[in-house]
Structure formats: C-alpha cells, structure tokens
Amino acid sequence: MNLKLCCTAICILIVSNLMAQKKPQKLIGRQEQHFSLFWAKFKKAVLANDVNVVYSMVQFPLQDAFANVRGSKSIACNSYDDFIKKYNNIFPTHVVLAIKNNQYKSYQVIDIALSNDAAITQGQYVLEPNAKKHPKYYNYIFSKVNGIYKLIGNGNYL
Predict the structure, then answer these.
(1) Can you give the pLDDT at residue 78?
(2) 4 Cβ partners below 8 Å, 6+ apart?
(3) Is the pLDDT of residue 127 over 80?
(4) Are 128 and 37 a contacting pair, CB within 8 Å?
(5) Which of 22-26's residues contact partners 24+ apart within 8 Å by CB, and which partners?
(6) Is the distance from CB of 126 to CB of 115 less than 8 angstroms?
(7) Rounded to whole angstroms, how far apart are CA atoms 102 and 28?
(8) Which H or E run includes 19?
(9) What mean pLDDT comes out for the span 111-129?
(10) Partners of 151 in the β-ladder
C-alpha cells in the first residue's frame, strides 16, 4: 500500500512539474512575439532615420549608465529636443548596423552564471553592438514600460 501511495505521489510531482514548465514557455513565446513586433517597427524606423517614430519607442528620461565614464557625449536625454540633438550620438553607424543585423538577445538564465555584471532580467532584451571595435558604446537595453517595449537606455546591462 505504501509503495502505491509513494508511486502516486511521485507521478503527481512529475506531472505538476511538467505543467509548471509549460506555462513559462507559453509566456516567453508571447513575450518574444511582442518584442518581434516592436523590433520590426523599431528597426524599420531607425534604418529609415524616422526620428519621430524612434522617439515614440524610447522611454524618457533615456538612461546612460556610463555617462561619466564613457569619454564621449552622453546619450542621456529628457526631452524631444535633447533626443533630436543627440540622435546621431545615440545611433552611430555601428549601432545602426547592429540593429540592421538583429544583434539582440533575450534574457537567458546562463547570462547570470557567465557574467560578472548584473544580467538583464526576464522580459528584457539587449542590443549588443561590437564593443571591441567601439569601446565607448555599450549595450542598449529594451524593456516593457506600461506593457509596451521601449529602449530604456544603455549599460553593460542596466
């Protein structure tokens, strides 16, 4: 009798564990769908140099985690006028190329284990321009703000 009870408990544990694993996958699938839609619009706007559309896809104030250490002008901005003035600094050629080539990735649990820096959190995405060739630029972070993806700033993970 105890063996039957033990086997039943193990089966229940296995089934509930499998069910719990499926829910995040569905959530992640929808999350990726939402980001893909955002990314297509963002990429199109950046490549077309459509400043007004890009502006609508940025969270303000735009954060610059390395404003004091980057050795160049900060990308931080608080207003439309700031954004227009800094647009070419925010989106230099190599960043536009990274956008064109879809050099972004989503949160991965392994990032935490492999990085000495804080990792992006689940639901966030990071654009990784080639920092080795352009050391004054850092990763660009995208996150949901009020349910909508936006560029929130840069950093070696904010």
Answers:
(1) 92
(2) none
(3) yes
(4) no
(5) none
(6) no
(7) 19
(8) helix 2-47
(9) 66
(10) 58, 142
